[in-house]
Amino acid sequence: MTDIQQARLMVGTDLARRLTESSAAAAADILRRTGTAPCLATVLVGEDPASVTYVRMKRARCEQAGILSRQVVLPASVSTAGLVETVGALSADPEVHGILLQHPVGAHIDERAAFEAIAPEKDVDGVTMHSFAAMGFGLPGFVSCTPGGIMRLLDEYGVGLTGKHAVVVGRSAILGKPVGMLLLGRDATVTYCHSRTADLSSIVRQADVLVAAVGRPRFITGADIKPGAVVIDAGYNPGNVGDVDFETARLRASLITPVPGGVGPMTIAVLLAQTVEAATRQLGLG
Questions:
Q1: Which residue of the set 58, 164, 177, 226 is catalytic?
Q2: Which helix (H) or strand (E) holds 88?
Q3: N or C end of the chain: smaller count of CB under 10 Å?
Q4: How far is CA 240 from the centre of its chain?
Q5: 177 in active site
Q6: In the chain, where does the domain assigned CATH 3.40.50.720 lie?
Q7: 8-22, 48-62, 96-110, 261-275: the lowest-pLDDT one
Q8: What is the structure's pLDDT at 2?
Q9: What is the 3-state secondary structure (H, E, C) of 13-71?
Q10: pLDDT over threshold 80, residue 218
């Protein structure tokens, strides 16, 4: 009787640590050369517990990397106009090099209008239409952080993308859509799916590379995985559960990201790296 082969884990923690260490070294060099440390401004609307925790974690990571963290907290009752005004002021502030608008911001707010108030050169979270277009056209700019982290993970584990069929399950503007464009830019053939795709399982089974970003716990099972596929689980649901049923999927995949410890650490690491890059450009160093 032979043991069932299990997928190798694509762990993001070590890669994220190395990227953060590189960002810290670059931030220290910027401070030495200019007397100015890179600064990331985080805008938080209301007191959503998950958002508060996430912002606190980002602030701690900024400190580790030598990046100044300016936190702006607005009441949950703030209007779209008030939020846009705040973000616009940060965009105009030369001491701020990157801006992160933590979402969700409340159903009464036009989130897109708030995102578009971020100056493109400070959009280190890759959420504006300018950044989205740059990703689509393969032009210089800042990528959405989670898709950017996914691409770095694929490179770290030597996953070739040319000619591969990549299936993205999810269509959000900051995850599903941009990661598909980045994969397309690396010569993969990309199929977008979502929760309403007809006969979703049959399409997922064709994927050489699968990115699950639909926001539903264990939505994709091992039976849906093509043997030998690379599985990127970008979901995070209550109970530390991803969008893929990990235990069954790892019996068919060749590589798979765990939840937590896979994609998650890469998101913040890319945010820090892009903040340092933004400071480098704005201070005329590169």
A1: 58
A2: helix 80-92
A3: N
A4: 17
A5: no
A6: 145-264
A7: 48-62
A8: 40
A9: HHHHHHHHHHHHHHHHHHHHHHCCCCEEEEEEECCCHHHHHHHHHHHHHHHHCCCEEEE
A10: yes
Q: Give the chain's radius of gyration (CA, Å).
A: 19
CATH architecture of 34-119: 3-Layer(aba) Sandwich (3.40)
What pTM was estimated for this model as a whole? 0.94
Nearest to 230 by CA among 167, 144, 169: 167
Q: Are 235 and 244 in contact (CB under 8 A)?
A: yes
> Which of the residues 102, 164, 224, 274 is marked catalytic?
102
122 is known as an active-site residue: no
The dotted CATH code for 145-264 is 3.40.50.720
Determine which one of 123, 125, 243, 245 is catalytic. 125
Does the annotation count 226 as an active-site position?
A: no
**In the chain, where does the domain assigned CATH 3.40.50.10860 lie?**
34-119
Of all residues in the chain, what percent carry a pLDDT higher than 70? 99
Tokens 């068919």 found at: 252
Percent of the chain with pLDDT over 90: 90
Q: How confident is the model at residue 54 (pLDDT cuts 50, 70, 90)?
A: confident
